[in-house]
Amino acid sequence: MMYIAGNEPFSQGSVNFTVPCRLAVERNIVINTIHCGNHKQGIHGLWQMGAKLGQGRYFAINSDQVTAGIPTPFDDELMRYGTQINQTYIYYGSAGKVRFNAQVAQDSNAKKMSSSIFAGRSSSKGSKLYRNTNWDLVDAMDGKNFSIEKLDKSTLPKELQKKTDKEIVLYVEQKKAERLKIKTKIAELSKKRSAFIQKKQAAEKGDKSLGSVIIDTLHKQAAKKGFAFSEEEMK
Questions:
Q1: For the whole model, what pTM was predicted?
Q2: Within-domain flag for 80
Q3: Are residues 85 and 31 part of one domain?
Q4: Is 196 found in the same domain as 81?
Q5: DSSP result, the chain
Q6: Which structural domain, as residue segments, surrounds residue 212?
Q7: Given a cut of 60, is residue 20 above it in pLDDT?
Q8: pLDDT above 60 (res 106)
Q9: How far is Cα 147 from Cα 145, in angstroms, rounded to an integer?
């Protein structure tokens, strides 16, 4: 299942979009499109046509609208843990420091939008899917192909550049343990936050956010492919 989003014509580029859309369907891939702008403009820009060819659904959103999110009693703690987890990252490689700084900058951007958005980002950072093996030493050392002997120490934080391989490994293990504790806390709070938001959304009948519509579409399309969902997953 694929979601494609953008604000320019769906037909832009040198490749005729009808070809990959048909190829995707042949490979049992559903294509849903999201135009970031006016609904009718999206239709004229062939976003709806892309979804039709991909046997999916077409959406349109106001890309200028500020998303506030739904505040919950768990946001403050999630924000705190979301900030703490940054201290467990150890950048490495030519782009490591840049990627680390970008992560911190995105935290700052989310916080400026609202505490709820920042809490949601913290939940994402605490999930198993959030991994940065290409610039974070903690994630990288979990990989089978990583070698500490081949590490360019000049790309590490200054406090680690003169340490031995053994000392670096011990430091990484310490940060890994710290991160695991923080992720456990984030997971617990995220579960409570999700339940609170679901209850709030259920009470506000008729208020369909883009996220809820996408999830509803995902469930329906996946069901046609033979996937089954529990009652908890369908909420």
A1: 0.69
A2: yes
A3: no
A4: yes
A5: -EEEEESS-TT-SSS-THHHHHHHHHTT--EEEEEES-HHHHHHTTHHHHHHHTTS-EEEE-TTSPP-----TTHHHHHHHHHHGGGG--B-STTHHHHHHHHHHHHHHHHHH-HHHHHHHHHHHTSTT---TTTBHHHHTTSTT--GGG--GGGS-GGGTTS-HHHHHHHHHHHHHHHHHHHHHHHHHHHHHHHHHHHHHHHSTT---HHHHHHHHHHHHHHHTT----HHHH-
A6: 2-65+206-234
A7: yes
A8: yes
A9: 7
pLDDT in tens, 72-102: 999 999 999 999 999 999 999 999 999 999 9
89: amino acid identity, one letter: Y
Query: Residue 220 contacts by C-beta under 8 Å, 6 or more apart in sequence?
Result: none
Q: How many domains are contained in the chain?
A: 2
